């Protein structure tokens, strides 16, 4: 069984967000315990598992995402990585439909190597800043929004990009806030820098202290910044030590996320359950 490591939201190796990708030959998923063991062994923020579905249905592949500690409802970068593997190996062309916990998600590849994902837009609800989050981040927070059950994160706006980049959270405290994670964001400091907003994502409650480039978070970042900047098409920069760019386009209750990916490891998974 082949397993690949793909750097998503990057045009070069060793940047963006790495994901494990396992394409299964059978028409069903293996035992959940085995899936979690593989994801724990890979030890990246997410490992994606996909198997083909019968022709004529609503989707072409079934897709699941697991962190080293838990299964998640939505993951953008591992979806991008999976679509990249399908296209780069000739397994699929054009549009691929994935059946997931978040419904059917569609990806479309162009002839330049970019892949656009069609995800549900996260609903944003203003909330009071939880004290545990404010203390764990250790910085002033301008506003906070709940992103709904599909994403499950708290989106917090900071004063400036410098504040986002300099964050050094207390991860143990942050893990107790009750949601999947916390997304910290601010407007881009340099309007000519090639992106419109910056963010970082912290998810210690699911075993990930910091996720370099979180596709699903941009389903909340896109409507948040589109409302403030007055444009539906934006570019987001995310990351601390590793970084990447996500192109977003808000289309009402759907958000398009576009990026590129690079396969850096292609190997054999010997423990097949």
UniProtKB/TrEMBL annotation:
Which Gene Ontology cellular-component terms appear in the entry?
cytoplasm
The organism's superkingdom is given as Bacteria
Q: Which SUPFAM superfamilies match?
A: Diaminopimelate epimerase-like
Which is one Pfam family of this protein? Answer: PhzC-PhzF
- Catalytic positions are 46
The entry's keywords: Isomerase
One Gene Ontology molecular-function label = isomerase activity
Keyword Isomerase annotated: yes
> Which NCBIfam families is this protein grouped with?
PhzF_family
**What name does this protein carry?**
PhzF family phenazine biosynthesis protein
- Species whose genome carries this gene: Streptomyces kasugaensis
Mind giving the lineage of the organism this protein is from? Bacteria, Bacillati, Actinomycetota, Actinomycetes, Kitasatosporales
